[in-house]
Design goal:
heterotrimer, A alpha/beta, B mainly alpha, C mainly alpha, A: alpha/beta, Rossmann fold, 2 domains, 6-stranded mixed beta sheet, 4-stranded antiparallel beta sheet, 10 strands, globular, C: mainly alpha, two-stranded antiparallel ribbon, 2 strands, 3% strand, binds adenosine-5'-diphosphate, binds magnesium ion
C-alpha cells in the first residue's frame, strides 16, 4: 500500500471481559507487513480471545483495532474477512457435509474481494490452495475421512483460499507429533512465501523459535514480554508464567541455558 | 454399506425413470377429463375429485420445497412457515375481495408481502439459534394467525374476522384444471429455485452457515443477509402457494389459512424425502400427503381398517400418522431419498446403524 | 387502584396453572435438551384421570393430584426409556418431530376413549370464593396456586437434595462426564422425563377444575409452557415459577386492555416471548446455558 510507515495491523489497549474478568486486558502491539509474528502464553492466557477480537467474532469492551490505519473495531466478521484478514479456529470447524475441495472453495467464493468469483473459479483456487497445504490427493474426500493433522491443514487451506493479506493461525500445531509439526511449519513457510503476513498463536515454544523473528508473550490477558523469541523465552517472568514460581527459582540458581520447553 | 458406483448409477436411473413416469401421469391425467377429451372417447384417467387432491398434494410440494431452503439448506428449523402461507392467502384474498383487483394482478403481491414480512421478523429472529429460533418462529406463526382473525377497525373486522373472507369465483374455463396447473407452476418455480440455490454462491454460503455459522462468517459470508435472504425466499414461495390457495378455495379463515399442523407437515415431508436436496422434499410431500388423504379415507381407493368404525376412522388415521412419524424419525434420519437416490440401500444394517448413531 | 390490585391478584392466581405447566416442561428442556411438544397432551391425560376419578368415585379433585403424578411418571418414564432415548443424540428437529408424533398419538387415543365432548370437574366448592376489600378470590384458584407452588418446591427439593436429583444436575451440566462417574444415563433420562410428565399430570388435574377439557385442549398449554420457561429463563425451577406468575400477569393485563378482549392475550404473550428471546435470551431470571 501507499504508506509504508504504517503497521499493517495495530492494537491499542484492546480489552475483552467475560463477566467482569478481563480475558484480554489492555493489549497493545503492532504487526508489520510481511512478518511472521508469534504469540505464546499458557492456557487461558487470552490468545484465542484476542484472535476473536481481531476477527470480529467478539465485540471488544475497550481499545481500538486498526487495519492499515483504519479502525476496524466492532466490524462484523465477514467484513473483516473481506478486508483481507483470514483466520483458523483452534478447535477445527470444517463444513461437515462438504468435501475437502468444497470446504476450500467456500473460502475462495467469499473472502477478500470475492465479489467477482463464481463457483467455477473458486474451485480452481481451491485446488491451488489444497496443493499448497498438501491436501491435493484428498480433495474429493468427505471431511469425516480426514485425520486430525489433515483437518488442521484444511482449516488453514480454507483461510488461505480467502486470499488474505494477514493470516491468523490459532494453535494449528497443537496435538501434532514432531514429524507433523515439521510438515506444518513447512506449510506455514509456503503460505508466508506467497506474501502473506502471519500471526502465529502457539502453545508449543519450539514452533515459535523455529519460525518467528518476533514473539509476544501473553499472560492473564496482558502482554508480558515482546521481542526475539530466544530472548523472550529466557525472560524470568515468562518462565514463571509457564512453569510457576518454584521452578523459576530453581532455574535461577541453576541458570540453565536451554529454553524451557 | 455404501453401494458401489455402478449400482448407485443404476438405482439413480431407475429412480429418475419411475419419477418421470409418475410425474407425467400426474400432470397429464387431468387433461383426459376435459369435455373435449371425453367426447373424443379418450379414456378418463382422473375425475374432479382427483384434481382437488392432486392440487393439495402439489401445494404441499411447494411448501415443503420452500421450507427446505431455510430449514434444510440453511439449517434453521423454522416452525412458523404457515404464517407466510396465511399472509399470501390473505394478501390475494383482501386485494380480490375488498379492492376488487383481478386475480392474476393480485397474485404476485402474495409472495412479495410474505417475503417482506419474513425479512422484517427474520432480522431479530434469525439471531436466535437452535430451539430458540424454532420456538420464536412458531410463536410468530401463531401470533400472526390470531392477529389476522381479530384485528378490528371501528368495530368492523378488517380481515373478515372469525367468519372468514369470501372471494368471488374466478371466471375461467376448467377451473379445477387451471388451479392444478397453476399450483404445478408454483412447484416448478420452487424446485427450480432450489436447484439454482444449490449451485450458486448463495447456496454454498447457506450450507456453510448450516454447517458452522461462525466459520462461515470469518470466511466472509454475510451471515445475517444470507439467512434473512433464505428466510424471505422460503416465505415468498410459501406465500405464492397461499395466494393461489385463496382464489382456488374461494373462502379463507384462520383455520384454513394458518393451520398449525402445516408447520409440522412440511418439515416432516422434507425430512422424509431428504433435506437439503432438490427433489427430496417434493417426493416426501407427494408420499406423505397421499398417505394422509388415504388414511383419512378421502382417496377413492381405500381399504377398510379392521375393528374401526367409519366415525373413528379419521382419528385412527391420526394415530397411525403419529406412530409413522415416530418410526420415521427413529429409523430413517436421512430421508428416503437416501435409498432411492442410490446413496444407501435399505437394509437391516442401515436401520441398525441409524439407531446406534442417535440413541443413548 | 382497586382495579389494578384486582388485576394483579387475578393474574397471580391464573399464574398458578402456568407455573405447574411450566416446571415440568422446563425440566425436560433444561436437562434433556428436548422441547417436548407432547407436554400439552400429557397435561390433558392428567386432566382426564382427575375427571375420571371425580366422576366415577366422587374423589375430591385435589386428592387425585398424587394419582395424576404417579400415573404420568410411569407413562413418561416408559416413553423416554422406550422411545425418546433412541434419538436423544439426533439434531433438534428430530426430537421436535418425535414428540409431535407422540402428541398426535396420545391426543387421538384420548379422542377414541373419551370422545370430543367437553368434560368438567365441579366439586361443591367450585365457583365459590371469598372477598377481601371488594376483590373476589375463588377457592379453586387459590388452592391451585398453592398446589403449584408446592409442586415446584417439591421438585426443587428433589433436584437439590436427593441422589437422583444430583445425577440429573450432573447430566444437565455435562452428559459425558456424568456417564464417566457411573450414572446410568438411560435410567436418569427416563426419570427426568417421568418427573416432567408427573408435573404435567398435576397441572392437568388443576386445569380440569378450572376449565372444561377436551382431548385437544392441551395444545395451547404446550405453547404457553414455552413462553413461561423463556420468560423465566431455562435451568432453574424458581425461574420458571417467576415466569409462570409473570405470564399470568401479562395475560390478566392483556385481557383488560379495552377493545382487545381475550383474543389478543395469546398474541401479546407470544410477542412478549419473542421480545424476551431477542433482547434477553437468558430470560428474566436465568443464566445463559
Ligand atoms: N466465550 C467465553 N465466555 C466466557 N469466558 C471465556 C470465553 N472465551 C474464553 N473465555 C475465558 O477467557 C480466558 C481466556 O481464554 P482463551 O482466550 O481461550 O485462552 P487461550 O486461547 O490463551 O488458551 C479463559 O479464562 C476462558 O475461560
Ligand atoms: Mg486458545
Amino acid at each position: 500500500m501507499s504508506t509504508t510507515a504504517e503497521p499493517q495491523l495495530e492494537l491499542r489497549g484492546v480489552t475483552k471481559r467475560f463477566g467482569g474478568v478481563g480475558a484480554v486486558d489492555g493489549v497493545t502491539f503492532q504487526v508489520e507487513r510481511g512478518e511472521i509474528l508469534g504469540i505464546i502464553g499458557p492456557n487461558g492466557a487470552g490468545k484465542t480471545t484476542l484472535l476473536n477480537c481481531i476477527s470480529g467474532v467478539h465485540r471488544v469492551d475497550g481499545g481500538d483495532i486498526r487495519w492499515e490505519g483504519r479502525s476496524i473495531t466492532g466490524m462484523a466478521p465477514h467484513r473483516v474477512a473481506r478486508l483481507g484478514i483470514g483466520r483458523t479456529f483452534q478447535i477445527v470447524r470444517p463444513f461437515g457435509s462438504m468435501t475437502v475441495r468444497e470446504n476450500a472453495a467456500v473460502g475462495a467464493l467469499f473472502g477478500s474481494s470475492a465479489a467477482r468469483r463464481g463457483p467455477k473459479q473458486a474451485f480452481e483456487i481451491a485446488d491451488q490452495v489444497l496443493e499448497l497445504v498438501g491436501l491435493k490427493a484428498k480433495a474429493g474426500q468427505p471431511v469425516s475421512a480426514l485425520t486430525i493433522p489433515d483437518r488442521k491443514r484444511l482449516e488453514v487451506a480454507r483461510a488461505v483460499a480467502t486470499r488474505p493479506q494477514l493470516l491468523l493461525l490459532d494453535e494449528v500445531m497443537a496435538g501434532l507429533n514432531n514429524v507433523e509439526i515439521d510438515e506444518a511449519l513447512e506449510m506455514v513457510r509456503a503460505v508466508h512465501a506467497t506474501g502473506v503476513t502471519v500471526l502465529l498463536i502457539e502453545h508449543v515454544m519450539r514452533v515459535i523459535v523455529g519460525i518467528c523473528r518476533r514473539a509476544i508473550v501473553l499472560d492473564f490477558g496482558h502482554v508480558l514480554a515482546e521481542g526475539e523469541p530466544e530472548v523472550v523465552l529466557r525472560d524470568e517472568r515468562v518462565i514463571k508464567a509457564y512453569l510457576g514460581e518454584r521452578y523459576a527459582k530453581r532455574l535461577r540458581t541453576e541458570r540453565g541455558q536451554d529454553s524451557p520447553s | 454399506m455404501i453401494a458401489t458406483a455402478d449400482s448407485q448409477r443404476r438405482w439413480r436411473r431407475l429412480f429418475l425413470i419411475v419419477g418421470a413416469i409418475v410425474a407425467a401421469y400426474a400432470l397429464l391425467a387431468p387433461l383426459t377429463s376435459l369435455d373435449a377429451a371425453q367426447s373424443a372417447n379418450v379414456p378418463l384417467l382422473a375425475d374432479k375429485f382427483w384434481f382437488r387432491i392432486a392440487t393439495y398434494v402439489v401445494m404441499f410440494v411447494v411448501m415443503a420445497t420452500a421450507w427446505n431452503i431455510i430449514g434444510g439448506i440453511t439449517g434453521y428449523a423454522a416452525f412458523g412457515n404457515v404464517a407466510f402461507f396465511g399472509i399470501g392467502a390473505y394478501t390475494t384474498g383482501m386485494l380480490i375481495a375488498k379492492a376488487k383487483w383481478p386475480f392474476l394482478v393480485a397474485l404476485p403481491l402474495a409472495p412479495i408481502l410474505a417475503a417482506l414480512f419474513a425479512a422484517l421478523v427474520g432480522l431479530p429472529l434469525l439471531r436466535l439459534r437452535g430451539h430458540y429460533f424454532a420456538v420464536a418462529s412458531l410463536g410468530v406463526g401463531v401470533a400472526v394467525g390470531e392477529l389476522v382473525q381479530n384485528i378490528d377497525y371501528n368495530g368492523q373486522p378488517v380481515f373478515g374476522g372469525a367468519s372468514g373472507l369470501f372471494l368471488p369465483i374466478y371466471a375461467v374455463g376448467h377451473r379445477g384444471l387451471f388451479f392444478f396447473y397453476l399450483m404445478c407452476g408454483a412447484a416448478a418455480i420452487a424446485i427450480a429455485v432450489t436447484w439454482w440455490v444449490l449451485r450458486s454462491r448463495f447456496g454454498y454460503g447457506l450450507i456453510a452457515i448450516r454447517e458452522n455459522e461462525e466459520a462461515a462468517a470469518v470466511l466472509g459470508v454475510n451471515t445475517t443477509a444470507y439467512k434473512v435472504g433464505a428466510f424471505a425466499l422460503a416465505a415468498a414461495l410459501t406465500g405464492l402457494a397461499g395466494g393461489i390457495f385463496s382464489q382456488w378455495n374461494v373462502f379463507i379463515n384462520q383455520d384454513n389459512a394458518f393451520p398449525i399442523e402445516y408447520n409440522v407437515q412440511m418439515i416432516l415431508m422434507a425430512l422424509l424425502g431428504g433435506t437439503g436436496t432438490v427433489f427430496g422434499p417434493a417426493a416426501g410431500a407427494v408420499l406423505l400427503q397421499l398417505l394422509i388423504q388415504f388414511l383419512g379415507g378421502s382417496l377413492p381407493i381405500s381399504i377398510d381398517l379392521p375393528f374401526v368404525s367409519t366415525e373413528a376412522r379419521p382419528i385412527v388415521a391420526q394415530v397411525i400418522l403419529g406412530l409413522l412419524l415416530v418410526v420415521v424419525v427413529i429409523f430413517v434420519p436421512r430421508g428416503v431419498i437416501d435409498f432411492f437416490g442410490g446413496r444407501t440401500r435399505l437394509s437391516l444394517s442401515y436401520l441398525r446403524r441409524s439407531l446406534r448413531d442417535t440413541s443413548l | 387502584m382497586a382495579a389494578f390490585v384486582q388485576l394483579v391478584i387475578l393474574g397471580l392466581l391464573a399464574g398458578g396453572v402456568y407455573v405447574a405447566v411450566g416446571v415440568g416442561f422446563g425440566l425436560v428442556w433444561g436437562v434433556l435438551n428436548i422441547v417436548n411438544l407432547a407436554h400439552g397432551a400429557l397435561v390433558i391425560v392428567g386432566g382426564y384421570i382427575t375427571w375420571q376419578l371425580f366422576t366415577a368415585f366422587g374423589l375430591d379433585p385435589f386428592l387425585t393430584l398424587p394419582v395424576d403424578a404417579v400415573a404420568l411418571f410411569v407413562l413418561g418414564y416408559a416413553l423416554q426409556r422406550g422411545v425418546i432415548n433412541r434419538i436423544i443424540r439426533a439434531p433438534l428437529l428430530f426430537t421436535f418431530l418425535l414428540t409431535f408424533g407422540l402428541n398426535l398419538v396420545i391426543v387421538n387415543i384420548l379422542l377414541l376413549i373419551f370422545g370430543s365432548d367437553f368434560r368438567s370437574v365441579t366439586p361443591t366448592y367450585s365457583g365459590q370464593g371469598f372477598e377481601i376489600g371488594g376483590i373476589v378470590v375463588p377457592y379453586v384458584r387459590l388452592t391451585s396456586l398453592g398446589a403449584a407452588i408446592l409442586l415446584s418446591a417439591g421438585l426443587a427439593f428433589l433436584l437439590s437434595r436427593t441422589r437422583i436429583g444430583l445425577a440429573i444436575h450432573a447430566i444437565a451440566a455435562d452428559r459425558d462426564a456424568a456417564q464417566l462417574v457411573g450414572i446410568d444415563l438411560r435410567h436418569a433420562y427416563a426419570v427426568t422425563y417421568g418427573l416432567g410428565a408427573a408435573c404435567a399430570g398435576v397441572a392437568g388435574g388443576l386445569i380440569a377444575m378450572i376449565q372444561a377439557i377436551t382431548p385437544t385442549a392441551g395444545e395451547p398449554y404446550t405453547l404457553q409452557a414455552f413462553v413461561v420457561v423463556i420468560l423465566g429463563g431455562l435451568g432453574r425451577v424458581s425461574a420458571t415459577v417467576v415466569g409462570g406468575l409473570a405470564f399470568g400477569l401479562v395475560e390478566a393485563f392483556g385481557q383488560s386492555i379495552p377493545g382487545s378482549g381475550s383474543v389478543f392475550a395469546n398474541a401479546i404473550a407470544f410477542g412478549l416471548m419473542v421480545l424476551v428471546l431477542v433482547t434477553r435470551p437468558q430470560g428474566l431470571m436465568g443464566r445463559l446455558r
